[in-house]
Amino acid sequence: MEEAKGIEGEPLKVQPVEELLNVELVARDSEKVTKIGSQMENTVREKIIQCLRRNIDIFAWTPKDLEGINPNVITHHLNIDPSVKLVIQKKRHFGPEKDKIIQVEVDKLMAAGHIQAIQFPEWLSNVVLVPKPGGKCRMCIDFRELNKACPKNFYPLPRIDQLVNSTFGFELLSMMDASQGYH
């Protein structure tokens, strides 16, 4: 499929249809900010902001805020094909600057209880640093080998035209971003 081009032949970029306003959900706390459309009526905008502020406790602003589900309620185990050979990837080496980024992220995840140290791993997958806009990096894990050992679940992908059509007739649309997109 060929990339869409503008009048000057430059690639078209998806942009918001309106300017988005930054809204501090907690007064004088620049970390707890969301974006909201600028073109809606002031009364509607204020009602949405008040609703978000009333429910501020349901948002996760740091990994520590993601409490998870009590293992007594449910525990997930990977369905790994026992005939597949275990893979322990060789350790990748990073420079001191990237090592520091990784250590800070690992410390945050350990403090939040999302990960723990282990002595004898059956599978070992490397850390990968992925550049983000603004010059920062996101720490990810290279699970390609582990993914190969797990049977595939075949779910049909939703059709984009059905998704777009399902929004017809609604006055407001809302999107929420998962915390950093990976926890």
From TrEMBL:
<dbReference type="InterPro" id="IPR053134">
    <property type="entry name" value="RNA-dir_DNA_polymerase"/>
</dbReference>
<protein>
    <recommendedName>
        <fullName>Reverse transcriptase domain-containing protein</fullName>
    </recommendedName>
</protein>
<dbReference type="InterPro" id="IPR043502">
    <property type="entry name" value="DNA/RNA_pol_sf"/>
</dbReference>
